[in-house]
Amino acid sequence: MKKKTFFITTPIYYVNDVPHIGHAYTTIAADVVARYKRLAGYDVFFLTGTDEHGQKVQQAAGQSGKDPQAHVDDLHVRFKELWVRFNISNNDFIRTTEERHKKVVHEILQKLYDEGEIYKKNYEGWYCMPDERFWTEKDLVDGNCPECGRKVEKINESNYFFKMGQHRDWLVDYINQNENFIQPKSRRNEILGFLKQPLDDLCISRPTERLSWGIPLPFDYSDYVTYVWFDALINYISTFGTLDKIHACDYWPAAHHLIGKDILTTHSVYWATMLKAIGLPLPQNIFAHGWWTVNGQKMSKSLRNVVEPNHLIDQFGVDVIRYFLLREVPFGLDGDFSHKALIGRINSDLANNLGNLLNRTLNMLKKYFKGELPKPDTKGDEDAPLVAKSAEVIKEVDRLYGELAYSKILAKIWEFLDAGNIYVNDTAPWNLAKTDDGKKRLATVLYNASEACRVIAILIAPFMPETADKMMTQLGIDTPIEKQGLDSIKKWGWIKSGTQTHQGAQIFPRIDDKAAAKILESVDIGGNVETKADQKSESDDKGQITIDDFMKVDLRTAKILEAENVKKSKKLIKLKVDLGTEQRQVLAGIAEAYEPEQLVGRTVILVANLKPAKLMGLESQGMILAGSNGDAIILGGFDSDLPPGVRVK
Ligand code: MSP
User: Fold this and answer.
1) Residue with the nearest Cα to atom 11 of ligand 1?
2) Of the residues 474, 489, 504, which one is the last residue of a structural domain?
3) How far is Cα 620 from Cα 448, in angstroms, rounded to an integer?
4) Does 477 lie in the same domain as 412?
5) Average pLDDT in the 425-438 region?
6) C-alpha of residue 373 to centroid of ligand 1, in Å
7) What integer pLDDT is reported at residue 598 of this predicted model?
8) Whose CA is nearest to atom 6 of ligand 1?
9) For residue range 329-347, what is the model confidence (pLDDT) as tens digits?
10) Closest ligand 1 atom, CA of 262?
11) Within 10 Å of residue 88's Cβ, how many Cβ atoms?
12) Averaged confidence pLDDT in the chain
C-alpha cells in the first residue's frame, strides 16, 4: 500500500544573516514533526533552504568586493552546516539562486502574465530601501517605514503588479471556513483584521537600474528583476520541479508551513493568492511561532546579544538545545532565552527525571540479573496503571502533534516518565530482591521498567534523536528506532527478555551550582547580561528592580471564556481563559466585586509564568491582575481590544 505523504517546510533564511537561535528554532520544530511522522509511517518530505536574492545581498557582496553569486555560495554553507550539527533531517535544501528554482519562477511568472494576472503601471509610492518594500502614504508611521521605522524614499517608476486585490473576498471566506489554515488563533484574527482593509495589488518587480541581483522577469528580461518575496515563496513548490510535476506530486499541498510571526502576511496573503492564481491548492496550515528575546531584549548585533547556536551546542550538546527551545515556551508565544533557565531544565527535567529512570533500572538489572533482562513473572497491582498510562500518553501525544503543541507534548511524555519513576518507587525492587518470591515479582518490575524506558526513548526520539539512540544502546536494543516505529509502542512488551543491557555513563549529568556559576560567568552575550543583571539585583538596596528582573514576569493578555463561583468560597471565581495558544484554569479572588457573567468575554492581564498553585483543592495556572483601594477590586485591562496571548510589558 502507498504510504500517506506529509510535507513540512521552514522559511528559507536570508543568506546574509548569521544563523541564530531564532532560525534554529523553526528548523528544529519542523524536524521534530518530520521525524515523528516518519516514525508513524508517513512518507515525509521536509524542506528548508536559503533566500539569496535582493538588495541586501547585492550590497553585502559589493562591500566584500565579491560577485553576488560567489558571495551566496560562501554564505549559505553556514546554514547547511548548522543543520547537520543539529541533526536536521531535511530531504532537500533549496537555494533561490539554483537553476531549478529560477526555472519554476519563470514558468509561473510567464503563465500569470499570459493570463492577464500581471500588468504594468506607473506607480508612485514610498519605498523602504532596507526592507525592499513599497508603502502607501497612509501606511507610514511619522513619515517612516511602519515595519522598521527607518526613512523611506519617494519613488516614481513603472513596475509590474500581480492582481492580488481581487482575491480578498474569497480569501476571507477561506480563512473563515478553514479554522486550521492559519494558527495560532490570535494570528488568524490578525490576518482577518488586516483583510478588513481593501487589498492592494502586489508590486512584483524591481527595475534593474536599482537592483540587479534577482531573477529577471521573463517578459521584460533586461529591465526588471522579480521582487524577492515573489521569488522566495515559490521555493515551497519549485523543489518538486515544473508546474506539471508539482500538480502530479503527492506532497503538495504542504501539511505545515512553519514561520515566524513577522512573516505571516507574506505567507497567508501573498502566497495564498499566488497559489490561487497559479491554480494550486493552499497549504493545510501556516503556523506562526513567536520570537525569542535574550534576557528580555531583542536579539541584535549592536546589543551583542545574538545567541549563537554553535556555541550552545559546544557547551551543552545538541539534544539539550533541541529540548530546551521546544519545552520552554509554548509554540506560538514569544519566549525569553537565558542560560539560567537552560541549566534549570537540564537539572530538573533531563538529569533528574529522564536520567534517573534509565539509570536506576539499568543499575538494578546489573545488580540483580547481571544486566540480562528477565522474563516477566509474578504480576502485581502496579503493572496495569503503568501500561494504561503509556497508552494514554501515546494517544495524547499524537493528538498534540496535530496542534504543534511541542511544549505540551514534552510535558505529556514527562508524565509517563513520572509514572515510571513512581512505579519503581511503589514496587520497591530493593525489598523484592530479598526473598525468592520477591525475585519473581522483581523480574516483572524490571522488565516493565525497561519497556517504559524504551517507550520513552521512542517518544523523545523526534526531539532528542541522539539521546534516544544512547538509551537504546544502554538497553541493549540494536534495532534502529525507525525500524521499531511508533507501532512498536502501541502494544506493551516489545522488548525481548534475555536482552543484555549495558549501563553506560549518565546521559545527562547534573550541572552543580559551582559549574553553573562558571557557565553564567563565561556567558558573553550582550556583555555578560545574565551575570551583570544578577549582581545588580543583589546589590540594589532601594527595593528597585532591574528591567531584567521585570522581564522575568511573563504578563499576557488572556480572554475569559468561562467563569463560575467556586463552591464554598466567598472570594474565588474559577475562570477558563484563552491565551491564544492554550487554555488555562485560573482562580481569581474577585467574587465579591464581580458576577461571573460580567467576566466572560473580557480581556485581562495574566501572570502566565507563575508556578501553578492549589486553592480550595483546585489548580490555578496563573494570576489575573487587579487593583484594589481597600474595598473595591477592579480588574486591569486595556482601553481597546487586544488578541489573547500578547505580551504585556
Ligand atoms: N527570507 C525570509 C523568509 C522567506 S520564506 C519564503 C526571511 N528570512 S529571515 O532569515 O529573516 O527569517 C527567517 C525566520 O527566522 C522567520 O520565520 C523569522 O520569524 C525567524 N526569526 C528571526 N529572528 C527570530 C527570533 N529572534 N526568534 C524566533 N524566530 C525568529 O524572513
Assistant:
1) 14
2) 489
3) 34
4) yes
5) 96
6) 48
7) 81
8) 233
9) 999 999 999 999 999 999 9
10) 19
11) 22
12) 91
SS3 608: coil
Share of the chain above pLDDT 70, in %: 95
Q: How far is the CA of 287 from the centre of ligand 1 (A)?
A: 13
Q: Are residues 545 and 559 in the same domain?
A: no
Spatial CA neighbour of 266 closest among 330, 327, 345, 187: 187
Summarize the confidence of residues 268-295 as an average pLDDT.
96
Determine the distance separating the centroid of ligand 1 and the alpha carbon of 100, expressed in angstroms. Answer: 23
Long-range contacts of 129-138 (CB under 8 A, 24+ apart): 129/55, 129/153, 130/55, 130/56, 132/54, 132/55, 132/56, 132/206, 132/211, 132/227, 132/228, 134/203, 136/200
Q: What is the CA radius of gyration of the chain?
A: 28
For 523-558, write each residue's pLDDT tens digit.
755 444 454 434 333 334 455 666 666 777 888 888
| Ligand 1 pocket check for 260: Cβ under 6 Å | yes
- What CATH number is given to the structural domain containing 623? 2.40.50.140
**Number of domains making up the chain:** 3
pLDDT at 169 over 80: yes
Which residue out of 26, 78, 265, 406 has the highest number of ligand 1 atoms within 8 Å of its CB and is therefore the one to mutate? 26
Q: Is residue 506 part of a domain?
A: no
Residue owning the nearest CA to atom 12 of ligand 1? 13
Q: Is residue 450 part of a domain?
A: yes
Q: Which atom of ligand 1 is nearest to the CA of 236?
A: 6
User: Can you give the residue range of the structural domain that contains 531?
Assistant: 513-549
Q: Does residue 429 share a domain with residue 344?
A: yes
User: Are residue 531 and residue 564 in the same domain, yes or no?
Assistant: no
Runs of H (alpha helix) within 115-184:
168-177
Are residue 517 and residue 485 in the same domain, yes or no?
no
Q: Ligand 1 centroid to 267 CA: how many Å?
A: 12
Tell me the sheet residues that pair with 160. 120
